[in-house]
Structures are given as structure tokens and as C-alpha cells.
Amino acid sequence: MSLTRDDVKKVAGLARLRMTDEQMDKLLPKMNNIVGFIEQLSEVDTDNVEPLANVARSTLPLRKDEITDGECREKVLFNAPESEEGFFGVPKVVE
Amino acid sequence: MTNLTDLTIASALAGLENKDFTATELTQAHITAIENARALNAFIVETPEIALKQAAAADARYANGTNLPMDGVPIGMKDLFCTNGVQTTAASHILEGFIPQYESTVSGKLWDAGCTMLGKLNLDEFAMGSANTTSYFGNVINPWKDDSGKDLAPGGSSGGSSAAIAARLCLAATGTDTGGSIRQPAAFTGICGIKPTYGRCSRWGVVAFASSLDQAGAMARTVEDCAIMLNTICGHDPKDSTSARRDVPDFTKALDGDLKGKKIGIPKEYRVEGMPEEIEKIWQQGMEWLKDQGAEIVDVSLPHTKYALPTYYIIAPAECSSNLARYDGIRYGLRETGDDLRDLYELSRAAGFGEEVQRRIMIGTYVLSAGFYDAYYIKAQKVRRLITEDFEKAFEQCDALLTPTSPSSAFALGENEDDPIKMYLNDVFTVPTSLAGLPGMSVPAGLDAKGLPLGLQIIGKAWDEETVLNVARGIEKAANFTSKPQILGLNKAA
Lengths: 95, 494
Fold this sequence. Notes:
The complex is a heterodimer. By secondary structure, chain A is mainly alpha-helical. In chain A, 35% of the residues lie in helices and 4% in strands. Chain A has helices spanning 5-14, 21-38, 73-77; strands spanning 83-84, 87-88. In chain A, strand 1 (83-84) and strand 2 (87-88) form a beta hairpin. The longest helix of chain A is centred in the first third of the chain and has 18 residues, at 21-38. The radius of gyration of chain A is 23 Å and the shape is flat. Chain B has a domain at 4-258 and 442-454 and 461-479: Amidase signature (AS) enzymes, CATH 3.90.1300. Chain B has an 11-stranded mixed β-sheet, sandwiched between helices. In chain B, strand 7, helix 8 and strand 8 (296-300) form a beta-alpha-beta unit. In chain B, helix 2 (23-36) packs antiparallel against helix 3, helix 5 packs parallel to helix 6 (183-189) and helix 9 (308-323) packs across helix 11. The interface between A and B is large, with 51 and 72 residues.
């Protein structure tokens, strides 16, 4: 299966990456090359094989549901491109 | 006078203990070496003031006998580890100027053990690459040269780490390995590098690429030095739910050099088509060395090896696209001005991420998108299980595996850049270990006809870094690799 220009455009939208037509034209053959490469997997018989999501070899540990940190607003906002009155600043979203 | 930048960690610690030199002298020697070798572009940020302050504290501890396990050892920190108050970029424009307000667990453990931080080491952007050419801050140059005189790749993604250690700019450095990012650069620069079992080291505070694969590890010039560093960086961390609740052995005790009766598996599928004869030769040589030390060589099969790279190039980009969704221009990182929120997201991400990172986000988004999720992502997870089971079966017959680390020695910068798949093939021998979450180590074994280092990889059972290190020690002893790169921090770099 190979991707079309429209597919690339749709995926770029999902990934929130702004791309020029030129960039998409350049990317399309490279993506198709990679998709062709990963499609080799269709040869492998995976009937009755359970997907393996992680190799941590342990069950996820539980801990008490309690607050373990906080009171660090300045640190949280330290790297914000824009902040005001102790909040992150964003463009207006409601008219 | 001892050449302070040519010491191992072990000999540096002995010298400091014996008051042959001070931590300040040792750190200053490395700061000078870094200044002399700036042409390599190994560091994104140099932190000499921090290093000297830490060294002074180390000297005070040596003076009153309260010295720590790695006190006064100057190291480099891959710029993927968040360091409190020091810019951490993951070599990406999108994080340029990002100053973490916390310390990653692994880097924190190293400072707590007395190491001094020389600076933040260059890498491929978000650790995505095999040549260190995707860094926003420019590529790193391998200190090794062949006859062509061309600049060579130091490997990637831990290319700043590998170049700096080989050029004697630091005694050791952190690396991270998602598909070979510690082992392949180690092989390309003639140093040692170990990726421990997934879960051995905390990932907390390490900028995430592919969370089910990412693992921190140690890079240094000897196997023993890697063991010393592993002793410090391993261990359970409540802040990383995938970090293992297991005791950490003293890895230096594993280096008894006794390989008698050890069974070393040779996976036949690693004889890939078109592999240079020299790689085959060094592999054979490695088998001979281990046999001479009493090990038994057994043939094993890892039948799904061929599918490891395509599996990896579904799972890693999928996890990357998900992890990198956090870079939205709102909370930290680069922000471009947009008309509305979506505009801001799209423009910030387009301006902040480089070409390879965008390509992987695109592939990852595609394989996770509605209609393709089962065909690609779930399929890849199933094949990942088969690959993992291959290793489990092989380890019923042997204690460790021996393979080449990489299908070639260091290549010229700019080579393999036209075709992503060609670049991905660099990791053909390292990716399967990562998918199975097993420990793997590269150790220098010799030089090829071009005079460039070649590495051998030792792969172990889960949690059995001790056998990996001990077999690596066996190779190291037999190989007696003493060659040095042409560019060293001691000389003015060309």
C-alpha cells in the first residue's frame, strides 16, 4: 500500500505539523519508502501471538494516592514562553 | 607526570585517593582538553565553573577521608538528561534555552557519587539518528581519521559522548540507547558502552523518545570503568514505574575474567548479506579469543532477526509521535505566533523540529492512525514478542551472545543521508536487543584496514549485565586495544 499526497496532508494535520506543498512533495517518496520497508512484517505469521507492549518484566507498582509534590508554580512556569498572573499564556480561544 | 586525561576512572580514583593529584587538577586538565578540541563539536554547553566547584568539594572530601564512590571523576552528560539550572535541549531547536528546574535521576546519582560535570554533550536530535548529523547544534566529528582525511561520523545518537571519551575530553559519559545509540557510537570511536537491561536505570528526567525502548547506560574507555559507572546509575526509582525493584550487584566484582565453561552463542542470522569481510573476520577473532579463555562456542538461531528493523521502525516512531506531542509551544520550548491555538501548535512544531524528527513523527502518527493501527502497530507488537522469544530460546543454550556491533566502521559525514533506510541499517545488530529489553555492550576489538575501530557486541540475559561485562572483559583483555584517535584533546585539534 502506498500513501498519496492527501494522506501526507492528513497525517501532517493529525501530527500538528505545518508543511508547505514542497515539503510534502519531498516527504511523500521517503514515507512510502519507509512504509514499504515496514510492510515486510506482513510476511510473519502472528496468529495466536499476543502483542508485547513492554519489556519491563514487572507489573506496574501501586502507591498510595497521596500528594507527593507541588507548591512549585514558579518552577512549572519557569520555561513558559508566555505566562501571566501565575498562569500559562495562550492566544485567545473564546471570542 | 601522569597524563591526567588519559587515565581510566579506576586509575583516576586510585590516584586521587593516593593524593597523586587533586580533583581540581584532574578536572582542569579535562577543561583544557575540551577547549583544545572544540572543532569536534562534542559539547553543546560547557560547564567548567560547575565542574571546578564540584571538584573543589571533592578535594575537601578527599582531604577529610569522606570521599564518595566516584569522587572527582570528570564526566560529560548527554544533553538528553535534564540538569537542574543547566540548559537541556535534546539537540533540538524546540528546546533551545530550556532550563530544567529539576535533575534527572541518573545525573543526580552521578553528582551524588562525586562526579564533576564538564558539560552537556551533543547528540542526534531527540536521540533520533545513527551519525549525530540530525543535531540542531551541528554534527559531531569523530576524532578518528582514515586515509581519506574526510570527517567521519562518531555514530549516533550518543555521538558527542563517544567522540568526547575517545578524544580524552572526559573519563566517561552518560549515553542513552533506544536502538543502538550507546553501542554503535562506542564501536565507531573505539570505546566501551553498555546498555543495561530495560528497567535497570531510571528514565525519570531523561527527555523521552520511545519509552518502551529508551534506556540509559554507561560509556567509558574500559569495561571496568563501565562497571564502576553502572554501580552508580542503576537502581529502582519510585519516579519511574518501569524501573526495576531489584538489587543492584557490585558489577566490578563480576570481572573475574573466568570464562571457563561459559557458553557463547553465535546467532547465524547475524551473517547479513553484504557484510564486509573485515567485520566477519573480527567476529571470528572474537570467538577464538573467547575459546582460548575456556569458553565454548555454540551456534544459535534468532529466526525473526530480519524483522527487527521494520518492527523497530513502527514501534519507535509510534512512541516518538506520542511522546513528542508534548511540544506544543505552550508550557515550554519554542513558540511561534499563530492566529489561533492550532496555528500556534502547527507553526511552533514545524519550526522547532528538524527533518528526521518530523519524518518519524509523521510515520508514527500514520501507523497509529485509525484504520492502520492494527495492521502496523499491533502487528509490530506481535513480532516484538516473537523476537523476544527468539532470545529466550537462544539463552536456553548459552550464557551470552557474541555479534558484531555494527555492519561497518565509521563512515564519512554525509554518507547514508539520502536514504533513511540505509541509515537505519546501521542498527541492524543492535535493534533486536533493544526490542527484547536485554543488556548489550560494545567493546573495541581492533582496527580495520582503514585504521578505524571495530566493536564486538555481547548480549546477555535480562538482568545479567554481570556476564555481559565479564565476557566483554575477556574480549578486552585479548584484544588489548591501545590505539588512539588522531585528534586528542591534548593536541590542538586541526
